[in-house]
Amino acid sequence: MPGLPQGAMPRTMPSLGPAVAMLDIGDIPVGLRVLDALAKEAEVTVGAAGTIQRGHYLILFGGEVEPVEMSFLRAKGVVGSSLEDAVMLPHAEERIVPSMMQGLIRWPASGDTLGVVQTGSPPTMMRAVDAALKGAEVQLVELRVADGLGGKAIATLWGELFDVEAAIALATDAMAKGNAARGSTTIIPRADETVVRAISSGTRFFGEWRG
């Protein structure tokens, strides 16, 4: 599954939401302790948990709003200084989790403009894409996190120029509320057919992560 940490659990993606939370933890033993604590705190579903590049531990979980809030607060209380980034979305945009966890590429899409968002950590990407998709009429073509990206995350958005500009502005504002380090964006109006082919088949050079 593209985008998943190696050894992530479980292999089949459970239903998450409406609330979704993610924690990027810089210490693997602490990450496992946090996972134990949040799972015991409230009735939530862990979508995936495992190591990612840069030696971090990434946890994605979801469920009803109140239990997710409880587990998220418990996790932040346990993680201490090992927390690199975190986000909790009470009503996550429905395209985010399938795109990230199942490697879905949504194409073809109407429009002629490409917007690209890069963040230094996966939680900030979730925050940015959630804002962009809720506030602008664009298609989320692809969303990748962590592995094969040195711990970064990348999203490609497609639509008409006005809509993509609005989406990128919203994503940029949302990034500033998270971990904005190593973040960047770009807009490509009237994208060349070469670019269209590059994004419609996925942004991986080899087509799969080779470590």
The whole-number mean of residue pLDDT values reads 91
- Tell me the strand order in the biggest sheet: 2-3-1-4
Shape: globular
Briefly note the CATH topology name of the largest domain.
Alpha-Beta Plaits
Short description:
By secondary structure, the chain is of the alpha+beta class.
How does this model look, in words?
With about 210 residues, the chain is α+β, with helices and mostly antiparallel strands. The chain has 2 domains: about 20-90, Alpha-Beta Plaits; about 95-200, 2-Layer Sandwich (Alpha-Beta Plaits), CATH 3.30.70. The protein is about 35% helix and about 25% strand. The chain has helices spanning about 30-40, 65-80, 95-100, 120-135, 160-175, 195-200; strands at about 20-25, 45-50, 55-65, 85-90, 115-120, 140-145, 155-160, 185-190. Strand 2 (about 45-50) and strand 3 form a beta hairpin. Helix 1 (about 30-40) runs antiparallel to helix 2 (about 65-80) and helix 4 (about 120-135) crosses helix 5 (about 160-175). It is globular.
Describe the secondary structure blueprint for this structure.
Blueprint: E1 19-25, H1 28-41, E2 45-52, E3 56-63, H2 65-79, E4 83-89, H3 96-102, E5 113-119, H4 122-135, E6 139-145, E7 153-159, H5 161-175, E8 184-188, H6 193-200
Helix pairs in contact: 1-2, 4-5
